[in-house]
Amino acid sequence: MPDIYILALFASACLVLAATPGPDMLLIASRSVSQGRGAGFSSLAGIQLGTYCHALAAALGLSQLFLLVPVAYDVVRLAGAAYLLFLAWKTVRADGAASPPGGALPRLPLGRVFRQGLLTNLLNPKMALFVPALFPQFVKPGSGSLVPQMLLLATVLNLVGLLVNGLVILTASRLRRLASSSLRYRKLPQYLLGSVFAALACRLAFASRH
Prior knowledge:
This protein is an all-alpha fold. It is 75% helix and 0% strand. It contains nine helices and no strands. It is globular.
């Protein structure tokens, strides 16, 4: 298993990565604005489960499929973009008349929010290439199976991400209360989340492997 020095070095790298605004942070923040911190943490939990899946796939060598069969990368990339566009359409088309008093958006079940976060992460081939590119630099091939080492690194990444994105969720949920207190901005969180899904879909659709 990696020693304490290696884990500390990896945690430092994770902190830089987690604190850099990216698609995951944007999705988590917009979900928190649209439905509150419970939805934000559910979305984060789905994303972090996806990180474990990518780490396990990398340890088993499955991620090499994208390098050996380029069309597989494009299939997953376009499937992810289509899924995000579907979420954008569903979000914008949500019936505002079903909103409870105070202007809050119709609340999705947290289980569905969790699954959306998980699928968004799993259908992001960039993540499938990022994990096997970074994690092997911090494992010891001679220290036993790579699977527990990769899962340990994924846990460190997720813990750092929980600290950083937890602050994002708490801050964004405060903005939600401010927006929902005014009827004028009642549908703003809904349009914001839909725009985020659409922007992520475009980013994924036109992404390259490099």
